[in-house]
Amino acid sequence: MQSPFAQKSLLYYTEPVLTLLARPSFIEPDHLRVKWLGESTDGEKLAEFAGRLCYMSQKNPASRATRDYLENIKKQGHGSVLEHANYSLLLEGVSRSLTHELVRHRAGFAYSQLSQRYVDESEANFVVPPAIVGDEILENEWRAQIDEAQRSYVRLVEHLMERYGWVADKVHRRKMAREAARGVLPNSTETKIVVTANARAWRTMLELRASEGAELEIRRCAVEMIKLLSKESPAFFSDFEIYQADDRREAARIVYHKV
Ligand SMILES: Cc1cc2nc3c(=O)[nH]c(=O)nc-3n(C[C@H](O)[C@H](O)[C@H](O)COP(=O)(O)OP(=O)(O)OC[C@H]3O[C@@H](n4cnc5c(N)ncnc54)[C@H](O)[C@@H]3O)c2cc1C
């Protein structure tokens, strides 16, 4: 049998877990066929198709490969063409403070996040702030507070369930208890969120949040998102350059900045 400490230690995330949930699926219309060149994904084809429709240039007079075509689109700043391609990611192992910052990005984004009013957080997971990871004294100090906060949450839920015992609807009573008790849960509480955005919106957010000025946890997550998305669609995301910053952590900068 595992010791309680070993079980507990499994609950501390030290990095985000990202899963690609959805990508575009392009269906080419028979009556407007494009002369495609080079390798591409469905999302990239969709954006090229949309761009070419503007000038009815499906014959590809300049003989451009899809990725060269989209490179030029980014260079020219024609971002609206990139808005047709949407990607959905599931983020786990991220803190409530990270998602609080993330959801500030509104244009082109959609979010669905775990509800602390409905979900029992008595066995919540937590995310160790990156600056604390690897320092035993800091980790112990942080964990002591986290553990106490979680115990307090459990006590509060129990007492609130008793206090509002007269509320007949048990689901409603639990919600009343959890929404009040969550007040003692820290920013480091782990959460899960589904994030959908179009390629243009992803680029804008990632440029801001992968930069050296961004908070460390969201910056680490943004760098991981860039790695995932640039594999998924090089034409949309490969102009991000990931580098080791002076603070010895990864950051990223973009070639085609859109103002
Ligand atoms: C390093 C960093 C530090 C930050 N620190 C703080 C902080 O201390 N406090 C704080 O409150 N926030 C902070 N933020 C969040 C920041 O203020 C923005 O809320 C966040 O970056 C999202 O930017 P946005 O509104 O441009 O994005 P989006 O909402 O995605 O908007 C994108 C663009 O669409 C247009 N747009 C969107 N909505 C409107 C609208 N309603 N009216 C007109 N134009 C619109 C604008 O051109 C906007 O730039 C910080 C962000 C970063 C990156």
Short key terms for the protein model shown above:
9 helices, single chain, 17% strand, alpha+beta, 2 domains, disordered N terminus, two-stranded parallel ribbon, binds flavin-adenine dinucleotide, 259 residues
Concise overview:
The protein is 42% helix and 17% strand. With 259 residues, the protein is an alpha+beta fold. The chain has 2 domains: 1-23 and 86-259, Alpha-Beta Plaits (2-Layer Sandwich); 25-84, no CATH class.
Description of the structure:
Helix content is 42%, strand content 17%. The protein is elongated, with a radius of gyration of 23 Å. By secondary structure, it is α+β, with helices and mostly antiparallel strands. It folds into 2 domains: 1-23 and 86-259, Alpha-Beta Plaits (2-Layer Sandwich); 25-84, no CATH class. Helix 2 (42-55) crosses helix 3 (66-76), helix 5 packs antiparallel against helix 6 (170-181) and helix 7 packs antiparallel against helix 8 (216-232). It is built from 9 helices and 8 strands. The protein has helices at residues 4-9, 42-55, 66-76, 96-102, 136-163, 170-181, 199-209, 216-232, 234-237, and strands at residues 12-13, 17-22, 86-95, 109-113, 126-127, 190-198, 240-244, 250-254. The structure holds flavin-adenine dinucleotide. The site of flavin-adenine dinucleotide has 8 residues, from helix 7.
